[in-house]
Amino acid sequence: MRMPEPDGAVLARRTQIAASLRALVPDVRVIDHPDELRPYECDGLTAYRQPPMLVMLPETTAQVSRILGWCQAEGVKVVPRGAGTSLSGGALPLADCVLLSLARFNRILSVDYDDRLAIVQPGVTNLAVTQAVEDRGFYYAPDPSSQIACSIGGNVAENSGGVHCLKYGLTTNNVLGVELVLMSGEIVRLGGTTLDSPGLDLLGLIVGSEGLLGVVTEVTVRILPKADAARALLIGFAAVEDAGACVAAIISHGIIPAGMEMMDRIAIHAAEAFVHAGYPLDVEALLIVELDGPEAECGFLVGEVERIARANGAVLLRTSGSEAERNLFWAGRKAAFPAVGRVSPDYYCMDGTIPRRRLPEVLSRMAALSEQYGLGVANVFHAGDGNLHPLILYDASRPGELEKAEAFGADILRLCVEVGGVLTGEHGVGVEKRDLMPEMFTALDLDQQQRMKCAFDPGQLLNPGKVFPTLHRCAELGRMHVHRGALPFPELPRF
Ligand SMILES: Cc1cc2nc3c(=O)[nH]c(=O)nc-3n(C[C@H](O)[C@H](O)[C@H](O)COP(=O)(O)OP(=O)(O)OC[C@H]3O[C@@H](n4cnc5c(N)ncnc54)[C@H](O)[C@@H]3O)c2cc1C
């Protein structure tokens, strides 16, 4: 993995930098012993590892502001980190960086049931938000499978999704405001506690910005009342393509399920052996479709989905008869990633999105790629959103297999772009998909995106080496090319 060259002058000052930061924010824990840095050397993309120069664990916005301001003045890189579950290497440290852990920002600050919102610190786990409000019949809708561990700050940075995002939206649709510390140390507030705020929608820019534009120190999230009724269906198919066609048919019928997930044979068997969710073992593909709403609407939609499923070749149909059974149906899906980890020494989780109607074609082309590379692939994914998560099975102890898995993964993502989709659905670009960005964006697109980065972080010190395949200096991007004396856009006033 190609990363920005470590700054030798910074590394030479390592001890002095640690001492200066300790003096700057005496209450903040600074970790610089090599053994204690090890736990921070990677995130969920464990193929890449690099211990940081040092780790800091602030717990107030003022401390974050002082640290960032000092690092900018001293030319020291900073990598923000939530819970470290990113699957795209977003929180991968650099050898010469300060890794800024937000783990101590772990308090729920307030809950307002009348306005249906909660104000939380970024280190609070996704699940803890729901747990804090569920006794009043509320929940936080975006539910990544990692919700027991991942932080809200990380969710904001990655614009994370989950099973229920098909109907209730991704993180970006459920965040009302953030407090953000810029690399300069300046503290800004974007959005607020109402549905819209005056000015440019900079909140929309921050959600999904992968820790490149600022450090989120407070998040205002929407909370929703739980639906009156929810029922889940298990729908089995003899062919993966039939399941893909059923997904497209349900949506084109005008039904938006609360969740619609697909698992293929390998994933079904792995999840069943792990969780005993009662999944059928004689089908090639399984859909879990959840319908929710008022009791009458829910019952009607269950009937409609059953009818559509039969018309698309379903060979098994089961509807949850109780809340316990519905949770059991989901338990297998939510544990599918670790379950696949039991059937293969290693797996590489990809994340790309395609138009739903191309699902059957993409699934069969992925099967052909699997043959070509000689590596198995398990599919567990958010079918309703067209968000694929192929898990490429490999053995890292066999020389060359990681590289083969990476090449296979890159081909899958190219396929996603070819059929009109995108490089990522919810895991972000990070370092994993960074070098594939030109598959989707032109050089001009990428320059424009980097100009945005320059507006927030002109020194390119915040999480460098992520998202952009080539780092331009901000001054370079500002340069204007004058060809044979002809100014581009001569009608524009010059300053
Ligand atoms: C088993 C498993 C299942 C998963 N399932 C899903 C899923 O269903 N859906 C999904 O979307 N993702 C999923 N993920 C990926 C991951 O959990 C999400 O991307 C999550 O949002 C990362 O949160 P985190 O707190 O771990 O962030 P980290 O991994 O620590 O960081 C992720 C990125 O956010 C930045 N960042 C973190 N905190 C802040 C902050 N306060 N301010 C600014 N930048 C910050 C980091 O710099 C980095 O770029 C899964 C991961 C695993 C391991």
UniProtKB/TrEMBL annotation:
<dbReference type="Pfam" id="PF02913">
    <property type="entry name" value="FAD-oxidase_C"/>
</dbReference>
<dbReference type="Pfam" id="PF01565">
    <property type="entry name" value="FAD_binding_4"/>
</dbReference>
<dbReference type="InterPro" id="IPR036318">
    <property type="entry name" value="FAD-bd_PCMH-like_sf"/>
</dbReference>
<dbReference type="InterPro" id="IPR016171">
    <property type="entry name" value="Vanillyl_alc_oxidase_C-sub2"/>
</dbReference>
<dbReference type="InterPro" id="IPR051914">
    <property type="entry name" value="FAD-linked_OxidoTrans_Type4"/>
</dbReference>
<keyword id="KW-0274">FAD</keyword>
<dbReference type="InterPro" id="IPR016169">
    <property type="entry name" value="FAD-bd_PCMH_sub2"/>
</dbReference>
<dbReference type="InterPro" id="IPR016164">
    <property type="entry name" value="FAD-linked_Oxase-like_C"/>
</dbReference>
<dbReference type="InterPro" id="IPR016166">
    <property type="entry name" value="FAD-bd_PCMH"/>
</dbReference>
<keyword id="KW-0560">Oxidoreductase</keyword>
<dbReference type="GO" id="GO:0003973">
    <property type="term" value="F:(S)-2-hydroxy-acid oxidase activity"/>
</dbReference>
<dbReference type="InterPro" id="IPR006094">
    <property type="entry name" value="Oxid_FAD_bind_N"/>
</dbReference>
<keyword id="KW-0285">Flavoprotein</keyword>
<dbReference type="InterPro" id="IPR004113">
    <property type="entry name" value="FAD-bd_oxidored_4_C"/>
</dbReference>
<feature type="domain" description="FAD-binding PCMH-type">
    <location>
        <begin position="48"/>
        <end position="226"/>
    </location>
</feature>
<protein>
    <submittedName>
        <fullName>Glycolate oxidase</fullName>
        <ecNumber>1.1.3.15</ecNumber>
    </submittedName>
</protein>
